[in-house]
Design brief:
This protein is an alpha+beta fold and 510 residues long. It folds into three domains: 3-56, no CATH class; 66-244, no CATH class; 264-474, no CATH class. Helices cover 20% and strands 30% of the residues. It is built from nine helices and 31 strands. A seven-stranded mixed beta sheet has the order 10-9-12-15-16-7-17. A five-stranded antiparallel beta sheet has the order 27-26-20-29-28. α2 packs antiparallel against α8 and α2 crosses α9 (493-500). The longest helix is centred in the middle third of the chain and has 20 residues, at 190-209.
């Protein structure tokens, strides 16, 4: 197998994939790249800076790169299935792990698999392969938004003590056919769809290199924990966006794979990349203004060879509150429903609030700290009492809530982290009033951490609160509706991605 490698601008053909690293004597040595599956990848080597100790390999996907996706149950509630029912519109074969011969099934034959089926051997792995490449398998035991979902590639079923795991293995590019329409409406402008395809491909490829489920040899799952896959059936326009950006992924200027996070809608401001507690987030994930003025400035600076952007600075409570109230007529998403929203809790369910704090502490003790002797400490949440006050005490530069202080007559709690705050403040009411007065529903988290908190008190006790906020999602990386409006304004996918992931570069595998 030959590999193309670019070194200092020259293309050479190698029979082995190598990179260079500095040995103990200070000389650059060749090292063999031994990552499994490298035959389906291409390595690009960047110029070596004399100040750098290691020149990292840059690996690209090819058209043959495979991805393995764990499929969750209906509603994306669990990884473990009680039963798996499969059919196909062509002949298909069941293979047991460790056996060469398979069992053939005719088109429309329904295969039912459960933990007590007589289909298993000692390896407890079954693989279903359609006879014709390009034909699909239907998972009848599963429901997605369009009904029982159909899958390209193969399906693999693992028997475990907790239930059945189902893995869909297919080409990365075909996987994206199921990602893009599930993450972005096919009616969006083509350049936005292309930006989504490149961002989603980059996101997925990171987990091909660093799998999320190594114990079962799966790269990621099909839920919002990673990317929503195959919840919407394939669409012609989204398939075209994937095809026209084939094998293109985002790399940083330093030559590492970009962290291509994205979310639905901004409030006009983006968040820094530390919303999940990662303090050493990359520079290109710093919060940005998402408006026409700064996009034009970015394009002009790009033409002039100066790409540095002005980062947001809305961590002041008054400044951020005024911004949410007034907005900015230049904001790309000012017409989107989730651009502004309001949430009202008339009567706090203190039992639910206590349960959510306790659950958050059990999941991550750093997310809920208790004030003891004037210091915030790790402490099991016991005495809760009556809520006396609630306030946001820290914001990120984009205005997103970073710390929430809850004072009761028994204790004071500091809730830290965007997602924890979003989860804790969502009560039984899951309805949000959007800026067109329609109602939006959120089941587990507040729409975003971009909000201001106003409490309602009776006799000095907090009985309820109102949140006035904006945006939908974590706020890091690319706003999908921001990309839609940028594309509608005539910007290309490359320009959209360059703005949201500042200084990152699109490279093409093959």
């Amino acid at each position: 197998m030959m590999y193309r490698v670019a070194v200092a601008g020259l293309i050479v053909i190698l029979l082995e994939v190598i990179w260079l690293c500095r040995g103990g004597d200070g000389e650059w040595e060749k090292k063999i790249l031994d990552k499994e599956g490298i035959e389906n990848m291409i390595l690009l080597h960047f110029d070596i800076d004399d100040e750098e100790e290691v020149a990292e390999p840059v690996i690209f996907p090819s058209e043959d790169t495979k991805i393995r996706v764990l499929l969750k149950t209906t509603g994306f509630r669990s990884l473990y299935h009680e039963e798996v029912k499969i059919e196909s519109d062509c002949k298909y074969t069941l293979y047991r792990s460790g056996e060469v011969e398979g069992v053939d099934f005719e088109p429309q034959d329904i295969l039912s698999i459960s933990s007590d089926s007589n289909l298993w051997n000692e390896y407890n792995i079954i693989k279903i392969v359609p006879e014709d490449y390009g034909k699909k398998l239907t998972l009848l035991s599963l429901q997605r938004s369009y009904g029982p979902p159909v899958y390209r590639g193969t399906l693999e079923v693992h028997k475990t003590s907790q239930g059945l795991l189902v893995i869909n293995e297919l080409n990365l590019e075909e996987y994206l056919y199921g990602i893009v329409p599930s993450e972005m409406p096919a009616s969006y402008p083509m350049e936005a769809l292309k930006a989504q395809a490149i961002s989603a491909r980059t996101f997925a490829y990171r987990f091909i290199l660093y799998p999320g489920y190594p114990a079962v040899n799966a790269h990621l799952d099909d839920s919002t924990t990673y990317q929503v896959y195959n919840n919407i059936t394939e669409q012609q326009r989204t398939n075209r966006a994937v095809d026209e950006t084939a094998c293109r992924i985002l790399y940083t200027g330093e030559g590492s794979l970009a962290e291509s996070y994205y979310y639905s809608t901004s409030c006009g401001l983006g968040a820094d990349g530390d919303v999940w507690g990662k303090s050493d987030y990359p520079v290109y994930l710093e919060g940005k203004f998402i408006n026409n003025k700064y996009m034009k400035n970015y394009i002009n600076k790009q033409k002039n060879g100066s790409l540095k952007q002005r980062n947001v600075s809305y961590n002041n409570e008054k400044k951020f509150s005024e911004y949410l109230k007034e907005g900015n007529p230049q904001d790309f998403e000012k017409g989107e429903n989730w651009y502004r929203w309001e949430y009202t809790v008339e009567n706090i369910n203190t039992g639910l609030l206590y349960d959510k704090l306790q659950s958050a502490y059990e999941s991550d003790p750093d997310s809920v700290l208790t004030l003891i002797n004037e210091e915030y400490c790790h402490e099991e949440i016991s005495d809760f009492g009556i809520v006396l006050d609630m306030e946001i005490t820290e914001r990120g530069r984009g205005g997103n809530a970073r710390a929430l202080l809850i004072t009761t007559d028994q204790n004071t709690f500091c809730v830290r982290g965007d997602n924890t705050i979003r989860r804790v403040l969502l009560q039984e009411n899951h309805e949000f009033v959007l800026q067109d007065n329609s109602v939006g529903i959120q089941s587990s988290l507040l729409p975003s951490a971009f909000f201001v908190l106003n409490t309602g008190k009776v006799c000095s006790n907090v009985v309820g609160y109102t949140l006035v906020g904006g945006g939908l999602g974590h706020g890091v990386g690319m706003s999908q509706n921001g990309a839609k409006h940028m594309a509608a304004a005539g910007y290309k996918a490359e320009e959209i991605l360059g703005y949201f992931y500042n200084d990152c570069i699109i490279y093409e595998g093959g």
